[in-house]
Each structure stands twice: as structure tokens, then as C-alpha cells.
């Protein structure tokens, strides 16, 4: 407790320091949409909540027992007028909000590619999307850029004003892929591929997190999202290929090396597991993401995947071009 | 708490028992609704996992419809025999109740035996509940029904001896027999769903 | 012999747990010693532990619920202090292994063993009295329900000292709760304590639905039922329709963990999405199960303390029905972020928003109940004003989260945590506390000191805002729930404020404890002005329970009341009570029974043995339960008659007290 009190003198200063309220200061059209919906609903609901609170306080004060002057209707318990009002007003408000609900759920659907309209708004009407494959691991994030042949761990570098086309899966437990300032989050689940479309409209260094509990390393399962102008991004891609860059791994990410990076850190009861350091891969085997999805997908015959699921075949003997990620699942 | 029933008039007692019987049977219906939802949920689970074979065998490869048809016939027949037990219970015909109960019991035991045999064969062929999500949901759904039938049989066994004993066909015993009858017919209905959705659905 | 259980399962290297254990052991030994010293074991067994009397069961439920409140609250204090400290490299004092168990236990205990328990206490005490019944439909099953709840609470607390508790949150989402990622016994403790308490809750629902349908007093039509009974009825219907789903989800998770099935595993074709759907199709209705009775309590209190009938009784009942229906079809709003299609998300979003309509109507109804009334701000009434303000805000944030486009960013954040504490504390908890203080004099026949209740309310009201408003803010700053440490400087000041808030709440809890202790003190000393002589302690009771003496005799009603309308007791006070038509008759009552405690003990053994894979003990527990049930089934000596002389003596004593009370005025 002593430690706690030490912080108190600093409290006002901390509150005044330039805070970022991520969800209210978004850095992209999706985040702006999320915010607008939140603020809109808040504003509409305040139209009811504020009067209700005021009425509660006024009625409680005015009709207090000691106020003998107030009118007292000891048997009054029904009024059609009031009934119409108390049902009608909430229904009207909810109908209005439902309209917004329908529109925004469709307009900002995470599965829908960034619309032309949004692109035009940020001044990049013809921007081509950048594909990023996201894999949640224990307790880190792997980002694969299939078109660039590179990958990163715990850092997501993206160009601004470019639609980001995320394919998300998990090679461990379920969690949620979330960059608050860019907007919507989507679950990552093993054996399944979920999608998310975001866009960063201005450069910045944004926090990214796992928004669903994943185990002892959960709190450090975070990454920085660095959004930069296109030229800078291209320079960054070049730097990933630079072997002198200390962040770059000395080996390619492929079927043989993947298990090493996928493996969870040591876990103890006394301390939190070590967070994974940022790491770049200048070379990634193509099809890695698909094989991570496929290795759990053996059960879902109904989904009719083209590639025959790996089924009962021992996975580590699988060495043809369609590489197989080793299984840690003990099937 | 040291008073006993001698204070009460007999008429009062009977009226009370009648009311209690009505309440108990209503309560048992309410309980059956919870069981109904348990089975409903298990059916939903089966429906969502019934194609998740995980490289394991499918229902078409596994199920022996003939055996299941025999099981179905046995269970339906046991509902009829229990029906006769109920009719005789109302007529206060103790001997007949016992005979019909015994018959129902034998049919029930045969049903459970056939089911255990089926499960045993599946496991022996490497198609156990840990093989795939499909088999997990199959064993759980059908096994839960089988467990209910087994509990029903144990209940029937106890009631059999209670009817034989000093309680005879008292109002309280009749209430119990009625509750068991609801339970037994309910399991029959569930089985018909199992037969159509699980077995026929997988084979067709 | 002992399955997985070895000495190493005892966490003697964790000082917090050892300290807690010593504390619990000292209190436990003191209580046992006191009972032995005062030679009260026989009394305790005969009059309480074997009771089937719904009023005594209610008292035991309340005690259990309050003890669990303190336990769950201690968890909350630990979480808030951890988050106040664990900033910028400081790991705090709770490593993830411990912290994760704390938040899981907090959620599980507060929902299953605090809220559900106090809710069942209120059902037990109030419903039979309000409908003019002498007991519930199945008194013995009622006792079994209580013991299932009790032993599951004991089981969850054993996990503190033997092994560990679940670390995956109060809903145990797979696959992180599967054996592959969670080989310890924590999740098993969670599964079996939830499973056992679920049996108890289901039996309670069956019991009270039957009671309300079949045992209403002569003349009590459906639309004569007090609102609390209505809400209890709807709540029980929701338990009936959704708790079996919980039972199934827990059973399937157990099958995955115990026999290697593949319902929710990553491999073998399991589906985590299936679990989410199952658990939330119970989990969402669960919050309505909790809140509806609280609405019922507020309805009773608002009418009593405003000196007016409840405004819009029929509307209230209809709104409760609509909430019951809508509450059951909105569960998908807990995972808008799972990647479902826009149409699905829209449907569930809009349905969720529409729940705001009947809920809003209820708020207006309470508002217009106060309108042109004579509102007396005694203890229970404070909570309702606090509730209306707080719950409105919670409802607002709830509607915000119902819009998928907004939920995609506040899902799983501390905004969400703030929202549900806003409705659960501001709605459920305020309601239950108000209910406890409202019916307390009826239960025990003496009053609590109002001033401590008022202070408890003030601390809770202020403490709530100080604790949870900051969480809304950090939620908007992108902080997700269940974090153990962080380094975002924006979050830190707010989490410090929240930590202060939890200590204000602690002051509120302390006031409540003091209030109960002082009430017990007054009762022991027979403080004259603490006695409730008339049975109508608040002077303006409207429903049947206030027509009875306090405490209520064990048979409840000497004569079954004849109901002539809504608010029967109020009508009787206005028009005079009808002269008794018939002579007193002996009353048929169930005998007390040891079946409840025996089955409870068996369930505890079975639960513990299942956690540790001690199979012989599981079988032994099942065998003993079986023979207990068979023995009971063959037992014909299960009831007795209360003689007329006893009833007459009670009646005369009550008449004397009423006369004394009138003379005093």
C-alpha cells in the first residue's frame, strides 16, 4: 500500500499530460466510423438519460414525505397518456438507432474491403490494398506480408492511405486482433481464417493488442503498429532485406524454422513470461499461413477445402511443396 | 416438531394428498422441460459437429441401422407395456402392475444392452468418442439418452419393490408411477428424434 | 489412492494464500468452538441444518451470499491494487498465475455464489409469503437446492488452499481452458462447482415455478400477484430454459478434459464458436435472471415508500415478459467480433437495443410511482434512487455496445467491464441490498439501524462512480480487460482513481457488516424499539407478507388468506379484514429432513474427487446418494400436523403485540 500512496502527488500532473483517448482520436476511416457511432448513440441516449436522472432527483425532492404542500394522489396508478409516452418515446428512439445500426453494421463490416468512398476521403482513390496475414501465437503476433515475402513478429509496419487487408488465424488459443486507433477488432481462431479491413490515414505509432485473454503471457501480447507514408514504408521493406539490420533474423521463416518461433516462452508461477522481442524475416516460405490454418482444419470437411486436409498423415513426413507446419497438438 | 399425523382427520389427509399429487406431477413436467432443453442442446451440438470427421470414419461407414431398428422397436414396445402398467395402477390391480413393470424392465435392459454392445463395437473398431468431434457429439447425445434410460430402469426397479411392499398402490405410489411413466414416454420421444436425426440422418 | 492429489498441491509458498488460510482457519475454529461451548450442535442440526422451512433456508442463503460477497470483494480489491501498482516495469504483487485466478474467481463467485445466492434467498423468503402459501411446492428439494449451492461454494473456496482455481475467466472460454493449454486442476474446480450449483439453481426454478402456479392463495389470479413474485416467476422461467444449456456446456468441456473428446479443442474438429454460442445463450439470459428480481424488489419498495400503488402494474408485468423473451435471443451480441455476417450482427444488435424499451418503461414506472406520492427515504428507498440514476447510465452504455460498429472497438475492453458492473452493481446489487434491508424486519422480527444502511448506501453510490467511471475512460483509451500489467502512461492515473474507488466501496461493505452485527447485538439485548411488533414494519406494506407477524410462524398463515385483488393487505387495511370464515384447522407441514445435508456432503465429496481424479470416492459418493434417495423414497413418516392449540396461541400472542403497538402510538 505504501507504494501506492507515493503516486498520488503526481496524479494531477499525469492527468494533464497529453493523453490519447485512442477510440475518440482514431487514425483511420474505420476507427472514425466506430467513434461516430459511439458518439451518436451516446448523444441520442443522453436525450433520455439526462431527463430521467433530473426527473428522479426532482420527484424525490418534491414528493419527499416532509413536503406536506405537494399534491398526494394516494391511489393513482394508471394513466393512458403517460403509458403511451413511456412506451412511445423509447420505441421511437430505438427505431432511430436501429436504422443507424443496420446502416453502420453493413457499411463498416470488417469483412468488407475499404470502400472507394473512404479512399477518396483520405485522398488516395486508387490505392492498391496491402495484404497482411496475421497469426496469433503464445504470446506474440506474427505478421506475414505474402506479396512482399517478408514477415515480422510483434511489430506491424504499414503504409498510410493504403487499404490493409488482414487475414487472421491462430496457432494457439483464440484471441482478438485489435489496433484501437485504427478501429474494429476481429477474433483469431485456430483452423479458421477471419478477415479485417482497416486503413491508417495518418502516420503514427499505435498500440496493438490481443483483446481476448490467452494465458499467462496475455498482458505482454502486444505490438506496435507503425504507420508511415508509402516511400518510408518502401524504405522499411528494404531495411528488412538488409542483413545488418539487428532486427532481422538470420534465417528464413519456413517449415523447419517456424516451430522455433511458434514455441511459447517458458512459463512459471512466479513471474510473467518474457515478452517476445521484435523480429523481422527477410524471407518467408509462401503458403505458410494457409498451412497453419490447414493443420487444424482437418475436422471441417464440410467447408470443402481444395487441398485435401492432412488428416491422419504424420505431419512431419510431409515435405512436398505444399509445406506442412508441424503440429503441436498431439493428434 | 414433535406432533404426528394422528391429530388430523382422514378426509383432510386425502384432500391434501390429492392436491400434493397434482402439484408433484406438474412439478415433474416442469423438470422434464429442463431435460428437454438438455437434449435439445445436445441435438444442436450434434447438428453443428456432425460433419467434423477429422479424418475419422463417417456415420455412413459406422452405423448398423438394423441394430438401431431393433433398439427402436424394443423401446417403443416398452412404452406400450408401461402404458398397461399405468392403466392397471389406476385400477389398483397390483399383480398386473407388477407383471407389466417387469416386462417393461426387461425390454429396457435389452435396449441398454444393445446400446452398450453398439458402443463397444464402435470403440473396438477405433471409432471411440476421442476420434473426432462428430464421434464425440454422437457418443454424448446417444450416451446421455442411454444414461437416462438406465436411471429410469433403476427407478423402475425400486418402484417395483415398493409396489410389492407395504406401500402398495397408495396415492403416493401412484404419483411416483405417473412421474416415471412421463419420464419413460419422454425418453421414447427423444429416442425417435435420435433415430431420425442421428442415425437416419447420417446414413441417408 | 488420492488420484492427482499430492502435498505439492498445497500452495504453502504463496504468502497471501497462507495468510488467508490462517485467517479462515482461525475464524472457522472459533465458530466451531463457540458452537461446541454453547452446546448448540443439536440445536443447529435440528432447527437449521435439516430444515425444509423456506424462511430458514432463505436466512442460510443470505449468510452464504454475504460471506461470498466478502470473498469476491477481496478479489476485487486485489485486482484494483495490482493494476494501480503494476505499471511501467513494476510487476505488481500478483504474478499472472495468481492474478488470473483472482479475476476468474471474482467473476465466478460474484455471479454464482453472491448474486444467484442472494436472489434465491429473496425467492425463498418472499415468494411463498406473497402468494399466501405455507411453503414451497417441494420443501425437501428446496433444502437440496440450498445444499448444492452451499457445497459448490465450499468447493470453489477449497481451490484456494488445495491446488488452484481456473485462470481463464468466469466463462472458461476454450481452447485456453482445454487440457492442452491448461493441464492443472483449476478449470476442473470451475467446472464442477458451476455444475453442482447449477443443479441447485435448476431445482430452485422447478420448485418456484410449481409453487407460483399451483400454491397461490384462494382468489389470487395471475394479475393479483405482487410484482416481485412476477419477476421471480419470469426469472425462474429463464433459469429453466437456459441453465440446462450451461449444464451441457460444462459437461462437454469436462468430457473434452477428462476423456479426450473434441467438442471445443483446436484439433479433432472441435469448434470454439460452438462453445461461445452455448455459453452465451445461457450467459446473457443469466444477467436478466439476476436483474428481473431486482426490478421486482424496486417495484415493491417504490410503492411502499411512496405510499401509493405501483404505477402501471400491468405494464410492469408485460415489460418483464418482453425482457424475458428478448433477453433469450440476443446472446450473439457477446461476439460481434467473431466475424459473423453483417445481417446476423444487425439482427442481434437491434434485438439487444429493443431490450432498452421495456427496461426504460420500467424506469418510468418507478418514476411515476414516486410522482405525487409521499416518499419516505428510509434505508431501502435510498438504494432505488441510486439505482435509477446509476442504472440509466449503465443502460446507456449497454445500448452503445449493442451497435456492432461501436462494439467492434469496445468489445472486451474495460469499457465493457465498467458497463456490466454499472448494471450489475447499480441494478442487481443495489436491488438485492435494498430487498434485504426491506424484508429484514419481517425475517427476524427486529429492525436494523437505518443510519448504517444509509452510510453503506452513500459509500456504495460514490464508490461505484469513483471505481468504474475511470474504467470507462481507460476502455476508451484502448485498455483490454484481464491485463495484469501495462506500460501505457495514459491509463495509469485512471487506474489509481479506480483503486481509491474500491476502498470507498470497502467502506460501504464495512458499514453493511456493522449494520448486521449491530442488529444481532440489538436482538440479543432485546432492545425494545428495535422490535417489529405489528408485522407491518414500514407502516405502508401492501402485500400479504406484511399481514403476518414478524418473525413469521413456521406454518406462515394460520388461515389461508382470501385474495380480493392486487395489494391484498392494503385492501384489507382500507376496508377491514374479513372475519375468519372457518375455525382454525390443524396445518399439514413437512418434517425436517437430513436428506439435504447428506446429499450435499456427497456432492462435495464427488465434486472434490472429480477434480482430483479420485475415482473410488466418486463412486462412494454416488452410492451413498443413491441409498439416501431410496431410503427417503421408502420413508412414509415425512409430515406432521401443527395442532390448533399452537396456532391459536400464536394468534393470541400476535393480537396482544398488535394491541401493545397501537397503545404505544
UniProtKB/TrEMBL annotation, chain B:
Q: What is its main location?
A: membrane
Where located?
Cell membrane
TM regions (residue ranges): 28-48, 68-85, 97-114, 134-161, 182-201
**Keywords assigned by UniProt?**
Cell membrane, Electron transport, Membrane, Oxidoreductase, Transmembrane, Transmembrane helix, Transport
Ranges for the Heme-copper oxidase subunit III family profile domain?
A: 1-203
Keyword check for Cytoplasm: no
Task: Enumerate the PROSITE patterns for this protein.
Answer: COX3
Membrane topology summary: Multi-pass membrane protein
- Assembly behavior: Heterooctamer of two A chains, two B chains, two C chains and two D chains.
Q: Sum up the protein's function in the record's words.
A: Cytochrome bo(3) ubiquinol terminal oxidase is the component of the aerobic respiratory chain of E.coli that predominates when cells are grown at high aeration. Has proton pump activity across the membrane in addition to electron transfer, pumping 2 protons/electron.
The similarity annotation says: Belongs to the cytochrome c oxidase subunit 3 family.
Q: What is this protein called?
A: Cytochrome bo(3) ubiquinol oxidase subunit 3
UniProtKB/TrEMBL annotation, chain C:
Where do the TM regions start and end?
Answer: 16-38, 59-83, 103-127, 139-162, 189-215, 227-254, 274-298, 310-334, 346-368, 380-402, 414-434, 455-474, 494-521, 598-627
Q: Which NCBIfam families match?
A: CyoB
Keywords linked to the UniProt accession: Copper, Electron transport, Heme, Iron, Membrane, Metal-binding, Respiratory chain, Transmembrane, Transmembrane helix, Transport
Enumerate the spans annotated as Cytochrome oxidase subunit I profile domain.
Answer: 39-564
Task: State the protein's name.
Answer: Cytochrome o ubiquinol oxidase subunit I
Task: State the organism of origin.
Answer: Bombella pollinis
Classification via InterPro entries = Cyt_c_oxase-like_su1_dom (IPR023616), Cyt_c_oxase-like_su1_sf (IPR036927), Cyt_C_Oxase_1 (IPR000883), Cyt_c_ubiqinol_oxidase_su1 (IPR014207)
Gene symbol of the encoding locus:
cyoB
Family in the record: Belongs to the heme-copper respiratory oxidase family.
Q: One of this protein's Pfam families, by short name?
A: COX1
Amino acid at each position: 500500500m505504501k507504494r501506492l500512496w507515493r503516486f498520488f502527488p503526481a496524479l494531477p500532473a499525469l492527468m494533464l499530460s497529453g493523453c490519447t483517448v485512442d477510440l475518440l482520436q482514431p487514425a483511420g476511416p474505420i476507427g472514425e466510423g466506430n467513434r461516430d457511432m459511439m458518439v451518436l448513440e451516446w448523444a441520442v441516449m443522453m436525450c433520455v438519460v439526462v431527463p430521467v436522472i433530473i426527473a428522479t432527483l426532482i420527484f424525490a425532492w418534491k414528493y419527499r414525505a416532509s413536503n406536506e404542500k405537494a399534491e398526494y394522489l394516494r391511489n393513482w396508478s394508471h394513466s393512458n397518456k403517460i403509458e403511451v409516452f413511456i412506451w412511445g418515446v423509447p420505441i421511437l428512439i430505438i427505431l432511430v438507432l436501429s436504422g443507424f445500426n443496420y446502416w453502420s453494421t453493413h457499411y463498416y463490416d470488417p469483412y468488407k474491403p475499404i470502400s472507394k468512398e473512404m479512399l477518396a476521403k483520405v485522398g488516395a482513390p486508387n490505392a492498391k490494398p496491402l495484404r497482411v496475414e496475421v497469426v496469433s501465437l503464445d504470446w506474440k503476433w506474427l505478421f506475414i506480408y505474402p506479396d512482399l515475402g517478408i514477415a515480422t513478429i510483434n511489430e506491424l509496419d504499414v503504409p498510410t492511405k493504403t487499404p490493409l487487408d488482414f487475414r487472421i488465424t491462430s496457432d494457439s488459443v483464440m484471441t482478438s486482433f485489435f489496433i484501437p486507433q485504427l478501429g474494429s477488432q476481429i477474433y483469431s481462431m485456430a483452423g479458421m481464417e477471419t478477415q479485417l479491413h482497416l486503413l491508417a490515414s495518418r502516420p503514427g505509432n499505435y498500440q496493438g493488442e490481443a483483446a481476448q485473454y490467452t494465458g499467462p503471457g496475455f498482458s505482454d501480447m502486444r505490438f506496435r503498429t507503425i504507420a508511415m507514408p508509402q516511400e518510408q514504408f518502401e524504405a522499411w521493406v528494404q531495411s528488412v532485406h538488409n542483413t545488418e539490420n539487428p532486427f532481422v533474423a538470420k534465417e528464413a521463416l519456413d517449415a523447419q524454422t517456424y516451430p522455433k518461433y511458434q514455441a511459447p516462452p517458458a512459463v512459471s508461477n512466479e513471474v510473467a513470461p518474457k515478452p517476445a522481442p521484435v523480429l523481422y524475416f527477410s524471407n518467408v516460405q509462401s503458403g505458410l499461413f494457409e498451412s497453419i490454418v490447414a493443420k487444424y482444419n482437418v475436422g471441417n470437411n464440410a467447408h470443402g477445402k481444395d487441398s485435401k486436409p492432412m488428416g491422419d498423415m504424420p505431419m512431419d513426413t510431409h515435405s512436398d511443396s505444399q509445406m506442412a507446419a508441424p503440429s503441436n497438438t498431439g493428434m | 416438531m414433535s406432533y404426528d399425523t394422528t391429530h388430523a382427520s382422514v378426509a383432510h389427509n386425502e384432500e391434501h394428498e390429492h392436491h400434493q399429487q397434482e402439484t408433484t406431477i406438474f412439478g415433474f413436467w416442469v423438470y422434464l422441460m429442463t431435460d428437454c432443453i438438455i437434449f435439445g442442446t445436445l441435438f444442436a451440438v450434434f447438428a453443428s459437429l456432425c460433419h467434423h470427421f477429422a479424418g475419422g470414419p463417417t456415420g455412413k461407414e459406422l452405423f448398423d441401422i438394423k441394430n438401431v431398428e431393433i433398439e427402436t422397436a424394443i423401446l417403443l414396445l416398452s412404452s406400450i407395456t408401461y402404458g398397461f402398467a399405468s392403466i392397471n395402477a389406476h385400477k389398483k390391480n397390483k399383480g398386473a402392475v407388477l407383471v407389466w413393470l417387469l416386462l417393461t424392465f426387461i425390454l429396457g435392459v435389452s435396449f441398454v444392452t444393445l446400446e452398450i454392445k453398439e458402443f463397444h463395437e464402435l470403440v473396438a473398431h477405433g471409432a471411440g468418442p476421442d476420434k473426432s468431434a462428430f464421434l464425440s457429439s454422437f457418443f454424448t447425445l446417444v450416451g446421455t439418452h442411454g444414461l437416462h434410460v438406465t436411471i429410469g430402469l433403476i427407478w423402475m426397479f425400486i418402484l417395483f419393490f415398493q409396489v410389492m411392499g407395504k406401500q402398495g398402490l397408495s396415492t403416493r405410489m401412484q404419483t411416483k408411477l405417473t412421474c416415471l411413466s412421463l419420464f419413460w414416454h419422454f425418453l421414447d420421444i427423444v429416442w425417435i428424434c435420435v433415430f431420425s436425426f442421428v442415425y437416419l440422418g447420417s446414413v441417408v | 489412492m488420492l488420484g492427482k492429489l499430492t502435498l505439492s498441491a498445497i500452495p504453502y509458498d504463496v504468502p497471501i494464500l497462507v495468510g488467508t488460510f490462517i485467517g479462515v482457519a482461525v475464524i472457522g475454529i472459533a465458530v466451531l468452538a463457540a458452537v461446541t461451548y454453547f452446546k448448540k450442535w443439536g440445536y443447529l442440526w435440528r432447527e437449521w441444518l435439516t430444515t425444509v422451512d423456506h424462511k430458514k433456508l432463505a436466512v442460510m442463503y443470505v449468510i452464504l451470499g454475504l460471506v461470498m460477497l466478502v470473498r469476491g470483494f477481496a478479489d476485487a480489491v486485489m485486482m484494483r491494487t495490482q493494476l494501480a501498482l503494476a505499471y511501467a516495469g513494476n510487476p505488481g504483487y500478483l504474478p499472472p498465475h495468481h492474478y488470473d485466478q483472482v479475476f476468474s474467481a471474482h467473476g465466478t463467485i460474484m455471479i454464482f455464489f453472491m448474486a444467484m445466492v442472494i436472489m434465491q434467498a429473496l425467492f425463498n423468503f418472499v415468494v411463498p409469503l406473497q402468494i399466501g402459501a405455507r411453503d414451497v411446492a417441494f420443501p425437501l428439494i428446496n433444502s437440496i437446492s440450498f445444499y448444492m449451492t452451499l457445497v459448490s461454494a465450499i468447493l470453489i473456496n477449497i481451490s484456494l488452499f488445495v491446488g488452484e482455481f481456473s485462470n481463464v475467466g468466469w466463462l472458461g472460454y476454450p481452447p485456453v481452458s482445454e487440457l492442452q493449454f491448461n493441464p492443472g486442476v483449476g478449470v476442473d474446480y470451475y467446472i464442477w462447482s458451476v455444475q453442482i450449483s447449477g443443479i441447485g439453481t435448476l431445482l430452485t426454478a422447478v420448485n418456484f415455478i410449481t409453487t407460483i402456479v399451483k400454491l397461490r392463495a384462494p382468489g389470487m389470479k395471475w394479475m393479483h400477484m405482487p410484482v416481485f413474485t412476477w419477476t421471480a416467476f419470469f426469472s425462474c422461467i429463464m433459469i429453466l430454459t437456459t441453465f440446462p444449456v450451461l449444464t451441457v456446456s460444462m459437461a462437454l468441456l469436462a468430457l473434452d478434459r477428462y476423456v479426450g473428446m473434441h467438442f471445443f479443442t483446436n484439433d479433432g474438429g472441435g469448434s470454439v464458436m460452438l462453445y461461445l454460442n452455448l455459453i452465451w445463450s445461457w450467459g446473457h439470459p443469466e444477467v436478466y435472471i439476476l436483474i428481473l428480481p431486482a426490478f421486482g424488489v424496486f417495484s415493491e419498495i417504490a410503492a411502499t415508500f411512496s405510499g401509493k400503488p405501483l404505477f402501471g402494474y400491468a405494464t410492469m408485468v408485460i415489460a418483464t415478459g418482453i425482457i424475458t423473451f428478448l433477453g433469450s435471443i440476443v446472446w450473439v451480441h457477446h461476439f460481434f467480433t467473431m466475424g459473423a455476417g453483417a445481417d446476423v450482427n444487425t439482427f442481434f444488435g437491434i434485438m439487444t437495443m429493443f431490450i432498452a424499451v421495456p427496461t426504460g418503461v420500467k424506469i418510468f414506472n418507478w418514476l411515476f410511482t414516486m410522482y405525487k406520492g409521499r416518499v419516505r427515504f428510509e434505508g431501502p428507498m435510498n438504494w432505488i434512487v441510486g439505482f435509477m440514476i446509476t442504472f440509466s447510465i449503465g443502460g446507456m452504455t449497454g445500448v452503445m455496445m449493442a451497435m456492432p460498429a461501436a462494439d467492434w472497438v469496445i468489445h472486451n475492453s474495460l469499457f465493457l467491464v465498467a458497463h456490466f458492473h454499472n448494471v450489475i452493481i447499480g441494478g442487481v446489487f443495489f436491488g438485492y441490498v435494498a430487498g434485504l434491508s426491506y424484508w429484514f424486519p419481517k425475517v427476524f422480527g427486529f429492525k436494523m439501524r437505518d443510519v448504517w444502511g444509509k452510510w453503506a448506501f452513500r459509500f456504495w453510490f460514490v464508490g461505484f462512480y469513483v471505481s468504474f467511471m475511470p474504467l470507462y475512460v481507460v476502455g476508451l483509451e484502448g485498455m483490454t480487460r484481464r491485463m495484469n500489467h501495462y506500460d501505457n502512461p495514459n491509463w495509469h492515473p485512471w487506474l489509481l482513481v479506480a483503486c481509491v474507488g474500491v476502498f470507498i466501496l470497502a467502506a460501504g461493505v464495512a458499514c453493511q457488516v456493522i449494520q448486521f452485527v449491530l442488529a444481532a447485538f440489538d436482538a440479543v439485548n432485546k432492545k425494545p424499539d428495535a422490535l417489529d411488533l405489528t408485522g407491518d414494519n414500514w407502516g405502508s406494506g401492501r402485500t400479504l407478507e406484511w399481514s403476518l407477524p414478524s418473525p413469521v410462524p413456521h406454518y406462515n398463515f394460520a388461515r389461508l388468506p382470501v385474495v380480493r385483488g392486487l395489494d391484498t393487505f392494503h385492501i384489507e387495511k382500507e376496508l377491514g379484514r374479513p372475519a375468519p370464515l372457518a375455525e382454525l384447522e390443524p396445518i399439514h407441514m413437512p418434517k425436517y429432513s437430513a436428506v439435504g445435508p447428506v446429499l450435499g456432503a456427497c456432492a462435495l465429496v464427488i465434486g472434490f474427487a472429480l477434480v482430483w481424479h479420485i475415482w473410488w470416492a466418486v463412486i462412494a459418493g454416488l452410492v451413498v446418494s443413491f441409498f439416501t434417495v431410496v431410503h427417503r423414497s421408502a420413508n412414509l413418516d415425512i409430515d406432521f400436523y401443527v395442532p390448533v392449540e399452537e396456532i391459536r396461541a400464536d394468534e393470541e400472542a400476535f393480537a396482544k403485540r398488535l394491541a401493545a403497538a397501537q397503545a404505544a402510538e
